[in-house]
Amino acid sequence: MDRKFMPLVILAFLPLLVFCSKKLQLTAFEENDVYGYKDQNGKVLISPQYALAHDFNENGVGFSFGKDGWVCIDPQNKVLLNVFTFDNGPDYFSEGLARFVEGSKFGFFDASCKKVIPANYDFAFPIQEGFSIVCNDCKSISDGEHSTIEGGKYGLIDKTGKIVVQIEYDSLSEIDPETKTLRGSKGGLKKEIRLP
After folding, report:
1. pLDDT digits (tens, 9 = 90+) for 100-123
2. Which is a Pfam family this sequence falls into (predicted)?
3. Cα distances (Å, whole numbers) of residue 85 to 106, 136, 141, 175
4. pLDDT band, residue 172 (cuts 50/70/90)
């Protein structure tokens, strides 16, 4: 093939490559008070079975509520992970990550429902300033509408899951974004902790 035609051939096939690389976009629909998913042509790909459903996102995954609570599913209706329920819906993304629950432990996932930080903690707070306060041996105490986390030992992890502050404190404050510090309490003693 003549080299001067090569750019034209590449340009001719570029739209086909873009079309083939797009994730399948599914839209939630309701039928008889339950939700399923249809493709862009209206073909039912996941039959109605969920109490609530969100359209699939640009990463090709959808969030649905059923017998197992909020889950993240793929276009074949395979459950990728169980999403932590926050404010009656799936956990919100903070700095690109949201929380999932696996065997009553907390971890973090990205917008593709890929597990980024393994579920190793009894509770994890949302990512803030690049970090999450986590705890072990703590419990969620409900007052009816809301819950608080009590007891246990607290520490801090970064967005990669690396432990930055050991899980040994009785409490940790929120991070001061200006000074990049937080306060910890252990055995009645208070300590200011400077972050890297």
Report:
1. 999 999 999 999 999 999 999 999
2. WG_beta_rep
3. 12, 19, 15, 24
4. very high
Nearest to 108 by CA among 73, 145, 157, 61: 157
**Residue 99 CB coordination number (10 Å):** 27
SS3 content of the chain, % helix, strand, coil (to 5): 10, 50, 40
Which residues make Cβ contacts (< 8 Å) with residue 148, sequence separation at least 6?
Answer: 140, 141
Q: In whole angstroms, what is the distance from residue 186 CA to residue 53 CA?
A: 43
At 39, list the tokens.
Answer: 């493709």
- As a whole number of angstroms, the distance between CA 25 and CA 37 comes to 10
Would you list the DSSP string of 103-127? TTEEEEE-TT--EEEEEEESEEPPP
Is residue 101 within 8 A of residue 90, CB to CB? The reply is: no
Single out the residue of 67, 132, 60, 122 nearest to residue 93, CA to CA.
Answer: 132
Question: Can you give the pTM of this predicted structure?
Answer: 0.84
The neighbour count for residue 17, using CB atoms within 10 Å, is 9
Distance, CA of 188 to CA of 173 (rounded, Å): 14
Whether 121 and 135 have beta carbons less than 8 Å apart is answered as yes
Phi, psi of 62 (to 5 degrees): -130, 155
DSSP 139-151: EEEE-SS-EEEES
Cα separation of 37 and 44, whole Å?
6
